[in-house]
Amino acid sequence: MAEHDKSYKKLFSHPQMVEDLLRGFVHEQWVKQLDFSTLEMFKDSFVSPNLKERHDDIIWRVRWGKKWLYVYLLLEFQSTIDHFMAVRIMVYIGLLYQYLIDTQKLNKKDKLPAVLPLVLYNGSDEWNAPLDISKLITTVPGGLNKYRPSLSYFLIDESTYKDSQLSVLHNLVAALIRLENTRSLENEQAVAKAISEIWVVLMDWLNAPELARLKEDFVVWLLRVLLPRNVPLVQIPEVVELQEVNDMLYETMQRLYQKLEERGEKRGEERGKKRGKAEMLIQLLETKFGALDAKVQASIEKLDSEALLNCSKRLFTAQTLKEVIG
User: pTM of this prediction?
Assistant: First the structure.
């Protein structure tokens, strides 16, 4: 779990991920008023080690008109749901406000900034904890209720999003959640196919030079977290250089495909292995370039294993179908 925590936090240490998170999942009018060109990481954490056993936190800020809006992003990794998350959120925001008061020397003329507390949860069970601290506090008769605190947090529960909702979005966080949710598919072959198809699209989005570091962090997360967890059947090799990843990913998927075939009726048949590679390449090409006509599919099916592998190596960086298959 520690490896997952670390790599997830690195992903959300990129401004493009935070922008896509807000634009794609916080459907509120004020998001349109944010100046995302000012988005900057404010501070790594205010949380003491004894409060950080279950998650990690990142704080960003962005200009909202002439003022700063702070985004307190809490990454919740555990499968066990924290029923008292609203209490933790209240503590963390209190720590943030106290830090701002002390470091910015606020006085009675100043107002504290707005804070969006956002919890990103990736457990398999649907989140059922109260989203407002007032729901955790006893209701009493009389005037005492006016002293009951009220503070809500915004929840993004990854497991509640359907792939059909996310696949239509040109959004990096949507792609991340789609990859995470492949764990719910029925078998390893379905998982491998889904990961390959999503990965082709994601790599296209991350081709811009300014996103090179984010692309590298996605690769680390894929190799060290997602594939070992979602397709444990396949041994993941160590990859040193970024350019090796595309070849490795395709070969990894093919090893998975081969192992699955060896369990069934095509055990050990070279022809069956080649057919599996051709089908995988066709699926990835259609994901990137759209439906292939019958003639193109037939030409791919005639390629030998080495030619199929060479095509796959060109797939992730090619801009046209011709660049891949010639």
Answer: 0.79
